[in-house]
Amino acid sequence: MTETKENTSVKDAISEIEESAAKAVNDVRYIEEHPSGPFGRQGDIYFDGIDEVPTGAVAVDTNQLAQGDTMGSRHVATGDVLLYRPADYGQVISTTQGKCVRGFAMVVGGGRCRIEHPEHATFDLPPGIYQTDHQFDPVTETKVVD
Questions:
Q1: Full 3-state SS string of 34-45
Q2: Which of 4-18, 40-54, 69-83, 90-104 is predicted with the least confidence, judged by mean pLDDT?
Q3: Environment class of residue 69 by beta-carbon count within 10 Å: exposed (0-12), middle (13-18) or buried (19+)?
């Protein structure tokens, strides 16, 4: 079978995507100071620097930011961090980034925290309080599963 120019272009595009993804996995995004507001995303999870834990939030005994047991749910917080489940956890909310699904709030203590995922760049965060939200899919009206 002879390859067409179109098939070669598709193969080249796939190779470029795979190379970029491999580089991102090894990348660490070191955040120097606690940011205020939106500052990054890791796959389907967005990060915002906030000033306080949301009222009514309850501490949870997990370090996994996306619930589930698939590869896409492997957003894991390690280090000096405690997660809180806000009262509006799992609800669709409007943010400066558009509609999202509310995730956990995180308190990073005196040390630093890393947010790791096998397919995305790692975030290395300073002490502070952070809100995580999940990307929203308007077609299914649910959070995107990475």
A1: CCCEEEEEECCE
A2: 4-18
A3: exposed
Distances (CA, A) of 58 to 5, 38, 80, 106, 107: 56, 23, 17, 11, 12
Q: Are 80 and 111 in contact (CB under 8 A)?
A: yes
Positive or negative, the Cα torsion across 23, 108, 65, 134? negative
Measured on CA atoms in the order 97, 125, 134, 75, is the torsion positive or negative?
Answer: positive
- Rounded to the nearest 5°, which phi and psi values hold at 80? -85, 75
The tens digit of pLDDT for each residue in 75-89 reads: 999 999 999 999 999
pTM: 0.78
